[in-house]
Amino acid sequence: MLAWDLVRHRVSDPLSSVDHMIDGSGLMRTALTGVGVDPTCLTTDQLADQVTASDWLVRVGLNSRLISIASWADRFPADSIAPHQLAIPGGDRPIRPGGDGTPEITRFCVTDLAAQLHKSTGTAERMIADALDLRHRLPHVWARLCRYEIDGLDGQTIARQTRHLTVEQAREVDRSIADLVGRFSYGRLLSQLEAIIIRVDAVNIAKLAEQAAEEVGVWINQSNHHGIKGMYIKAKTPAIIRFYAQVTRIADILARRGHTGSKDERLAAAIDVLANPLDAVRMIAEDTEPTLFDPDPDDDSLLPRPMSGDTNRRDAADDGGAAAEGSADDDPETSDPTTDCHLDDGPATDELLGERDDHDDLLPPDPTNDAFDQDDSSTRFPRVDQDRRLAELAIRAIGQIDPAKFRPNATLYVHIAQETLQSGLGVTRVEDIGPMVSTLVADWLGECNITVKPVIDLAVDLTPVDSYEIPRAMRERLFLKYPGSMFPFSGAIGQHLDLDHNIPYLDGLPAQTREDNLGPNGRREHNVITHGLWKRRRAEPGTFLFRAPDGRVFLVNATGSYDLGRGRFAQHIWQSPAPTPPRS
Question: How many CB atoms lie within 10 A of CB 565?
Fold first, then answer.
C-alpha cells in the first residue's frame, strides 16, 4: 500500500473537508487524493530530496498559518465590538494578546479561531500574540518568515522571548537577530537571542536576577518502593558548580580507594560522605597530604584521658615524680591507690551520700545513681568521644594545609565586550553557561580566588608541532577562537569537543598539528568525518566547508551555517580550497 493510500483510508471524505478552503497551489488536494509516493521505492538521493521537500512543506504550512492568523486578527479590531456588548456583563471586550505596540482585538474572535484550529482558547490566543508580535514588533524576522526563509517556530520563539520588552527594544533585537535565524541550531540561536536581550534590557535583567536570587531552596521528594529518594537544589550558579565539583572530587577519591561502582554510583556515595563533614574533610585532607594523619609515636595529646582523680594523680606524678623518688621523708603508704578513694568514714563519704542519717548502714553502690556515674565509674572507665578525637585530629592536620587546596580547581572563561567594561552593565559570555548580565558575574567572582591571566592574542598562531597530540596552549587558543562545533547546524559547544585535523594526520610528515589544520567537532560529527563519507575543508581562517555523502555542500563560519546545495556553484566553492597533496 502506498504512503498516501494510508492517509486516504484514514480520511472518510477528504474532498468534502477541503472544498470550502482556498487551495491555490493544489497541494492539499494532491496530497489527499493523489497516488502518492512510496518511500521504499526511492533511491537514497531521491529519498533525501523527499525529506527536504517534506520539511519544506512543514515550513510552508506553519508560516502560512501564522500569516493567516495575523490576517484573522485584522478582521476583528477592538473598535468593531458592538456597543451593546460593552454594556452587558460577560460581553465581548477588547484585549491585547501581543506585546507593546500591537493592536487590540475582540476577545470573542479568539474562541472562534480556536475552534477552527482544534486548539484551546489559550493556545489560540498565544498564536495570535505571536503573529502580531512578529508583524508589528519584529518586522525583519516577519519579512523572512513571509518569504519562507525561516521556520515559523523560530519566529514564534523570538516573539515569546521578547514580549516583555518595549516596542523599541524589540525592534533593536529584531535588527540584531533577523539575519541569524536559520543559520544556527535551535540551542545556539536561543543563546544568541538571550545575549541580545541582555544587551538591550540590561537594567531590567539585573533586577530580575536579584529577584530570582530569593527563589532558592532545597527540596526532597518521596522515597520510591526501592528505597531511593531524590533531592532538588536551586541556588546560585557558582554555589551549584562548587558543590558539584566537590562531589565529583570525593567520587574520584572513592574510585582511587577501590570503589567499583559506576560514576553515578560513586557520585551518590560521595553525597553520603559529605553528610558527615568530618569524614569528608579527612578524606580530602588525606588525599591532598597522605601523611597528615600518620600517628606520631611521641605525641599522646590525643589519647583518651581518664577524668577526676586519675587525671589529678597522673598530673601529680608527672610534676613531682622525681622529687618523690629522691625524698626520704615520703611515706610509701601515701602512694597506695586505695588511700585516695576515701571510702572510710569522712568528709568524702558524707559528700557522696549527702545528708543521710543512716549512712552507717552502707549498701553496695547503685549503678543507677548519678553520683556513682559521675565520680566512680568515669574515673575507672573513661569515656572516649570518637567524634571529638576525630575533630581534634582533623583540625590539627588541616592547620598544616593551605585552605585553597580544599577547593576544587576550576577555570572560568568570561568574555566581556568593550562596551560592557566601559558602562559597567551589559552582557558577558560565560563558557558552558551562556550569556549573563555583567552584575551577576561580578558577584560570582567576588566569592572566588581569582587568578588573572594575560590576554591571549588569537591573531598570531602558535608554532606548529610534529606530534599527533595537541599541546594544551594550542587547545585553549582554538576553543577561544571557536567556542562551538564548526559542523553544519551543530549545537555542540564547550571544551569537551574533539579537535580534529582537517587534513588527516600522516606519520612522518612535519608540522601537521597546527591551528589552521584543526577544528572543533562533536564526537559523532568527528566520527562521520573520520570514518564516514563526510568531507571537510578549511577555506580561510574561521570558514569551513563540508560535503555530505550526497554531494551537498555546506559553508560554516561565525555567522552560521549555509546550505549551498549540489549545483555547479556549490561544487566550484568546494574545489576552491582543495588542499595540495602532502609530500614526504
Answer: 13
Q: Say how many residues make up the chain.
A: 584
Q: DSSP 3-state assignment of 250? A: helix
Contact 109, 117 (CB under 8 A): no
C-alpha closest to that of 492 among 532, 528, 524: 524
**3-class DSSP assignment, residue 553:** strand
Give the three cell numbers for residue 431.
Answer: 563558557
Nearest to 221 by CA among 213, 205, 233: 233
Residue 365 is which amino acid?
Answer: P
Q: Could you tell me if 514 and 508 are in contact, meaning their C-beta atoms sit under 8 angstroms apart?
A: no
For residue 389, the one-letter residue type is: R
What cell does 417 get?
Answer: 565586550
- Assess contact for 153 and 62: CB atoms under 8 A: yes
Low pLDDT (below 70) residues in the chain: 1-37, 225-226, 289-413, 415, 417-418, 421, 424, 431-434, 438-461, 579-584
Per the structure block, which three cell numbers stand in for 157?
520563539
- Distance between CA 122 and CA 110 in Å, rounded? 8
Q: What is the largest CA-CA distance in the chain?
A: 129
Question: What are the two backbone dihedrals, phi and then psi, of residue 571, each rounded to the nearest 5 degrees?
Answer: -70, -35
The pTM assigned to this predicted structure is: 0.57
* CB proximity list for 57: less than 8 A, separation 6 or greater: 27
Each residue's pLDDT tens digit, 315-327:
444 444 444 444 4
Contact 508, 584 (CB under 8 A): yes
User: Cβ distance 561 to 567 under 8 Å?
Assistant: no
Integer Cα distance of 355 and 366 in angstroms: 17
**Residues whose CB falls within 8 Å of the CB of residue 400, separated by 6 or more in sequence, listed in order:** 289, 292
- How far does Cα 437 stand from its chain's mean position? 17
What is the pLDDT at residue 298? 57
Name the β-bridge partners of 234: 217
Alpha helices in 275-417 (DSSP H): 277-288, 309-326, 347-353, 370-372, 378-380, 386-398
Cα-based distances in Å from 14 to 28, 38, 57, 102: 9, 20, 19, 37
